[in-house]
Design brief:
It is built from 13 helices and 17 strands. By secondary structure, it is α+β, with helices and mostly antiparallel strands. It folds into 2 domains: about 290 residues, FAD/NAD(P)-binding domain (3-Layer(bba) Sandwich), CATH 3.50.50; about 150 residues, Elongation Factor Tu (Ef-tu), domain 3. The protein has a 6-stranded mixed β-sheet. The protein has a 6-stranded antiparallel β-sheet with strand order 10-11-12-13-9-14. Helix 2 runs parallel beside helix 11 and helix 2 packs parallel to helix 13. The longest helix has 20 residues. Belongs to the MnmG family. TrmFO subfamily.
């Protein structure tokens, strides 16, 4: 590693995926010399096919391109406004996909690679980085398939608890889609010092008949299999609910669905047979996760089964459950607001390893990390990314807004935005509400970008 030490003012970026490529582009355009360190094609991953930068692994879609009614579309808009490499190149290799932005992935990655290699401030070095450097400016954007050795180095720096190798994801529901005439807020045995803690959980009661029907549906539902290279040794806190149910029909009633310590104010005389609990998932209280409900059910099956839960008949999901191989940091505890590792501020993290989910979100965090690192090298002070922008909502969520205890990778969604005052909630007001969010975000982001011109 020693031969890098002389060039302290070079920015080193580890990983040439969406986040690393975008970070390199942004920093290079600010006049900073950048070296991208990419281990492929020398060191393979089980998902990548080539050594190209910006290779798309799982799908060829950047999801909705609607920048007025969709949070991902808004993120597209913000990245375009910042001269984003990923968005500009996606546009050039766009495929018809309704309202979504889908790309022809091979020429897309070839084009990303060519543009970066042609940039006078960018060079690419093909080798694996296996440790966390003590000097120089670094961004680690190694993604969900971070190599084993580097994963171990990060783990020894951050502590075993702080790096997860499996996503055991419980489904997340929008608070305003839950029927509160059936559900109620209460912590078991009214535990907690404050009223907020005594009402931290949202409870959905089940009769015996409802419970039996739910278990039947759970056992019959379509499940996904593990891919090669991601066989899960389930650790007990993360058993999929269907595996628990297979161990016995009453297992869930003695686990996450136990009905003890709770009184249903809608029917105070009837003891529920089972209770499904949801816990607040973000500081704003707009998202709730279904406690203990990680699952390998297929997405369509999840929606059908979870809507059998009383109070969730019309639930809208911010994300569905899953369990898969994914290396990510507990960012709310480890990263500062500039995405630097608190214990080693010469290192930033970006992309999916920071706990954002999806190509667009990963590239967006790369865009911010690249600009922040370049500004630091150039001795500039940047204003805080405005929380009202999609970029700001996302970075705020991963560096502090999310619950550290239950932190799971998250897509951008309007549940992460601070509510706009004076707008009606619920389904009817949604169109106006989303337009208000996106208008406010565009103004905030445009103002933030002005400091670079």
């Amino acid at each position: 590693m020693s031969h890098f030490m002389t060039q302290t003012e070079t920015l080193h970026i580890v990983g040439g995926g969406m986040a690393g490529s975008e970070a390199a582009w942004q920093a290079a355009n600010m006049g900073v010399k950048v070296v991208i360190h990419e281990m492929r094609p020398k060191v393979e991953t089980f998902a990548h096919q080539t050594g190209n930068l910006g290779e798309m692994v799982c799908s060829n879609s950047f999801r909705s391109d609607d920048d007025e009614q969709n949070a991902v579309g808004l993120l597209h808009w913000e990245m375009r406004a910042a001269n984003g490499l990923i968005m500009q190149t996606a546009e050039e290799h766009r495929l018809p996909a309704g309202g979504a932005l889908a790309v022809d992935r091979e020429p897309f990655a070839e084009s990303i690679t060519a543009k970066l290699k042609a940039h006078p401030n960018v060079s690419v070095s093909y080798e694996e980085i296996t440790s966390l450097p003590t000097e120089g400016h670094w961004i680690f954007a190694t993604g969900p398939l971070t190599s084993t050795q580097l994963g171990q180095a990060i783990q020894s720096e951050t502590g075993a608890e702080a790096l997860a190798f499996f996503d055991a994801i419980a489904p997340i529901v929008y608070a305003d889609s839950i029927d509160m005439s059936q559900a109620w807020m209460q912590s078991r045995y009214d535990k907690g010092e404050t009223e907020e803690e005594r009402t931290a959980y949202l409870n959905c009661p089940m009769t015996k008949e409802q419970h039996e029907a739910f278990i039947d549906a759970l056992l019959a539902a379509d499940k996904t299999e593990f891919h090669e290279g991601e066989t899960a040794g389930y650790f007990d806190g993360c058993l999929p609910i269907e595996v628990m149910a297979e161990r016995g029909r009453e297992t869930l009633r003695h686990g996450p669905m136990k009905p003890v310590g709770l009184t249903n104010p809608h029917q105070p005389d009837e003891k529920p047979y089972a209770v499904v609990q949801l816990r607040r998932d973000n500081a704003l209280g707009t998202l709730f996760n279904i406690v203990g409900f990680q699952t390998k059910m297929k997405y369509g099956a999840q929606t059908d089964v979870f809507r059998m839960i009383p109070g969730l008949e019309d639930a809208k999901f911010a994300r569905l459950g899953g369990i898969h191989r994914n290396t990510f940091l507990n960012s709310p505890t480890l990263l500062d607001a500039q995405m630097r590792l608190k214990s080693r501020p010469n290192i930033r993290f970006a992309g999916q390893i920071t706990g954002v989910e999806g190509y667009v979100e990963s590239a967006a965090m790369g865009l911010l990390a690249g600009r922040m690192a370049a500004a630091e090298i150039l001795g500039k002070t940047l204003e805080t990314v405005p929380q009202d922008s999609a970029m700001g909502a996302l970075i705020h969520h991963i560096t502090g807004g999310a619950e550290a205890k239950t932190f799971q990778p998250m897509n951008v969604n309007f549940g992460l935005f601070q509510p706009v005052e004076g707008l009606k909630g619920g389904r009817r007001g949604r169109k106006d509400r989303y337009k208000a969010y996106t208008d406010r975000a565009k103004a905030a982001w445009s103002t933030w970008l002005e400091q670079f011109s």
